[in-house]
Fold these 2 entries.
Entry 1:
Amino acid sequence: MNRNVSSLIQKPRLVFIYLLLAALMSAVDVGCRQPTVSRSVSGEQGPFLNDYDTPTAKIRAGFIPCKTQVVLGEPLQTVFTVENLGPTNFEFWFGGDYRGTGRHNRFKIAAADSEGVELPDPIAHPMELGGFLQPVTLKPGQDFTNVIDLTDFRVIDKPGVYRIGCKFAFDEHRIQKRPTNPVVGSTFTLTILERTPERVARVLDELTDRAWTVRGEDLNETLELTARFGRNEAVPWLAQLAGTGPVELRAAALGALSLVPNDASLYVVLVSLKDSNATIRAAAAGSLGAMRMERGVDALLEVLPKENSPVAEAVLLALGTSKADRAFPVITNTLDAGQIELQRAAINALVNFGGSNAITTLTQRINSSYLSLRYEVVLALAEKLHQPMPAEWLLPVLAGREYNTREWLDSLRLLRMYAGDGAIPAMLSCLDFDVAWSGRNWWILETGVKPCPKAPPIDYEYDPNTDGTPDQWQKNLRLLETLKPLAGPIPTLPDHPAFQSVPYLKTDPPIDFAPTFKEIESGGVEIDSGFLRLEFWRTSARMPYSVPGAYRPVYETAAHFRSLPNLPDETRAKWSITLEQMQQLDRLLNKFAVKLCGSRVSDQKVGNLYNLLVQQGDYCPHSDDWHDLFRNYLEAPPTRKEQAKAELIDSVRIFSQNYHAGTVEFAESARKIFTPSQLEEILR
């Protein structure tokens, strides 16, 4: 089975651009929660919207109150709405006005009581400090909406009848000096009723009914409103939601119960901590931590040794949130001796705990030999606990070779932001001064040093899809030579973790997985292991996979099963294949994909490999680690060349073994899902 892996040909450039975007995203200021543009205005418009002429289109705009009669404590919200009536597009700018207040200050909200007395602004001296500004383009028939909390603008905290006035100017004064678009507005009467048991119950019914119809952040917000509005009275409603319905709804209700920490809500959450569903147990743990009640902390300490990931992580985080003194040593012990996933959770648990003891504990563990964990500790101290960050904290991470990892890339950002004058010397000290063509050097210089204040002139050429030219190499080496005197002490390169290599797979008949390696024409390499031959260059690869006769039947069987998700529904129905059978097969394919990930499992990698297994049922997929490992080998300094070569070779061997073992396991397990008559059709 010869295969040209066309999907790999452009991958280096795409990965390069993707990582650059990821590195820059940390600087994007997304501001307040964004409004939405939809196809048409929904809900009762009543007298609240008016028509306005603009230079390009007619619009219908104004402020629609969510309710004009509310019970004290209910949300006081209105929806700013703009609909384009045509005939052409309507464009305006939104935002740029929330820093310093957390609200959009271009909205002008006035409120007066029944006697005409103006209600005060909750912010004594609001300052306009700008913010992220976004263009909005409405095509004819489209509308724009933004929900406004009136209490962000006026103090409305008593029963009564109020006159509300809302305005918005489309032309942002810092963008457009001469307004050409209208100022739109609406006025309405808002009645706030006294709280009575009957009224509170009616509102709680409305809110919990809404909870069944929304998802995601809207669900969490709805149930948070339920808890804050109803307070103790809301517990029976939230308890009912926590015990029945979809998992997402139950988990959100448990989270909302933490806002009403009393004996009744505690009982509901304690029961849920023993639920059979891991998501529910994790949600219950989080709620108990937020409640900070003694019985809840006792329950968390009791279940921690019995739980596995991811519930165990949720319990640790909850113990940190509880800030209970007796939880502190448990968190610390987990940081010192737990599994790596629990150690990471313990770091964040200490962040939740806060205080000088947490800071001291993390600082004492800054020298972890596990670089990924070291990065997490530094991130916690510098960015979450706001501690001064010496540059040497991150030098071992930055001196590492895996420059495509999140930890390595983000170390550049942390140094830029928190290491002060020590940032540039520290980053320069980690360059490979004797490597003329290096993506690692490019990242340090372009995304680390260059954006720093007082950065020296830098023009380092690099393209991951080429080997460069002699002129480019000489230019880069001259630049590195000028930068070397500005570098700090050259750090001792950390010892690369010893291979935790997977043992050789034993099979019957035997398969020789011992890898061979040779360099081939045009700067490529060839690696053989088992049935896999990998021929690799910077921008392309070939992966012939040749299965001998003894193993061909099992591979052909696996290919038939792998292709089932691609069959037409009518074919599966003709063979009487049920939804449950396809779900079982899907779980086996997912397990196969996880096996191919080896030690680097992520949702993205599993998804990519799953798709390759299904879409090309009779081919061996590829590992997206190979391009990075191959580039590391080509660009490694002489002292690291053999190590980089060994990592690439071993990655290919392990993948080859996992693909063979996974194929055999998948074929055998998939057979058990289907009936004899179905197997006859599938394997025909």
Entry 2:
Amino acid sequence: MSYQSARIHISGIVQGVGFRPFVYNLAARLDLKGWVRNTSAGVDIEVDGERNVLDAFVQALSEEAPKLSHIDELTASFGPASGFRSFDIVHSASIESAFQPISPDVAICDDCLRELFDPSDRRYRYPFINCTNCGPRFTIIKDIPYDRPKTTMAGFQLCPNCEREYADPSNRRFHAQPVACPVCGPHVWLEIHNEQNTRDDNAIQKTRQLLAEGKIIAIKGLGGFHLACDATNADSVAELRKRKLRVDKPFALMMPDLAAIEEHCFVNDAERDLLQSTARPIVLLHLRPESKIVEEVVPGQNFIGVMLPYTPLHYLLLEEADGFPQALVMTSGNVSEEPIATDNDEARQRLTSLADAFLMHNRDIYIRCDDSVVRVFEKQIYPIRRSRGYAPFPVKLPWKVPPLLAAGSELKNTFCITNKNYAFLSHHIGDMENYETLKSFEQGVEHFERLFRVKPEGIAYDLHPNYLATRYALERAERENLPAVGVQHHHAHIAACMAEHGLDGSQPIIGVSFDGTGYGDDGAIWGGEFMIVDYKSYQRLFHLQYFPLPGGDASIKKPARTALALLWSLGIEWDERLAPVAEFNQEEQKLLHAQLEKKINTPMTSSMGRLFDAAAALAAVRQIVNYEGQAAIEFEALADPDEAGSYSFGLNQNEVEVRSGIESLIKDVKAGVHTSKISARFHNGLAEMIRMTVNKMNRETGIRSVALSGGVWQNLTLIGRTLSLLRSDGFTVYLHRQVPTNDGGLSLGQAVIAVSRLRG
């Protein structure tokens, strides 16, 4: 049989994941000659061989690819043999305008973990051990192709032993760009009062001692600094809250292994898989009543965010020993609402008042990246915050798109870059409420545009005129003479859910978009919306009835105000026996009443998030909040899963009426009904209302597909009961599985809507 040549191009996540050595060893196994190389567009291969062997080679490329790789496209063409005499890995090639997806950061693999604790290994207890199957990727890369000179490891010259591994295609460290050892790589040290105390393993042991003594330590990690303390020490956790200006918002924990997690939390199989996945996210788990985790970690909640170690440094810090805490608070290294610190000097400036000591290292972090937060719903992932371990893995779109930028929203900001049929959702930026976060946003946009070779041909933005992301989008569009596409907030929520499920938009869908705040077309604050949606447009068929928000943000921070405003709008008396009424003295009540009567700074809202706030206040759960959604979260946590009763909500023309449901809730409160039953009846009533409204929309339109999106759908009690009802009525229901249902997924929806509109 005559020889032929196969020319193969592969795109997807195929760099930094051991793909070239895999190709090299596969070619050796099949006795094929030729070459493989990285390019800015992916991986190129050319091989000579008999046609049946070449076909087997192409098939094996897909079927046996490294587990961290993700092939999006593989093309092969055949022609005359080129006469190769060996198989080589050749130098990478940069192709102008070409791009490819980048691997997220990956948790330490089993092989490296075994070596980390092997006294005979030359990397024994080395906190930066890694290989092609694990370690940093996204946080250290400066540009593509993904080669060491284009990472923050460029300044570390490989020693002869590491150089030999790096150059050996049969070694799992072949072209592992962060490869290092104690001789040639980064190192750690401990600083106390800005002076180096000790370094290397001694620094780690001293850090462990300080943590056991109740100290708060700033620890430099993969995508930024953490603030760590003993999660079983109430005084330490309370002091961290005081320093970090974080009154009640839960802290995330890190525990050494699954056994430790299962000692404190209930864990099912799907949660276990997520905890041990290469992404190593924070997973929200149900806390065991007997857990020794102090209440100060998660005030007022029965769920706790827990992660396993994901770097060798974490494993060394959490090594089991008598007297050492087996659960550490591991929260973002920042003052509340600021970006996480990444640079050593920056950390010294910003975190000195927060930490008693600093565990530093000298491997630079090029792009900050917070921990991801997920939970399990119906045995599948349900993202809350998509960042380390997932970003910048793209969402595949159902069509090719022009290069665009979508700027996202104000809270939980992410931005989105599109190119070809990829939507690259950024890492978590945070709440865009200050200059520091805006700068982090701008740096992230610049980095993504460089990595993915995007020069935007248009910019999408949220309609709210005062959002920093909106201002950035409009100013940049004007400066660069680009079309700017304003996208309604709740339209973007539903479009994001459609896009991640690969819906092409040719058929409209029923969208139920529930959240706290979204700027409406009429200038009101929307958030309880029932829409008919495609990518180009939407029709708002029903919405929660409007009620006033006296003081705007003042009501959001004090649900008692929201509750009284709701009662006023419904014509329900302010009874002193109700907790939110008792929150105000007579003079304050008069002022609030006058404000409502005269409509002084009282924007109208249809927000389901605000209705939850009001209900929680009326049920005496929470009158003042210290973080977004706190009242609703604590109200949900109390819901009795066995309660079948429900409050009634009605429809009047295009509005969902709430008076009957609120009157029933108040009646139960006055009768002394337990809060767990009140919460359950409120949730049950809303689920029945959603069912009724969606069925009415179906009768009017014939549409039987429904998408649920918006931050309120983080409420698993509501989503569980709603899904059961809608599915029993034969509806196909789409939930978020790749991007968050909250505003962290909004930029994806903005992007696909902008594409659709710009195409006309």
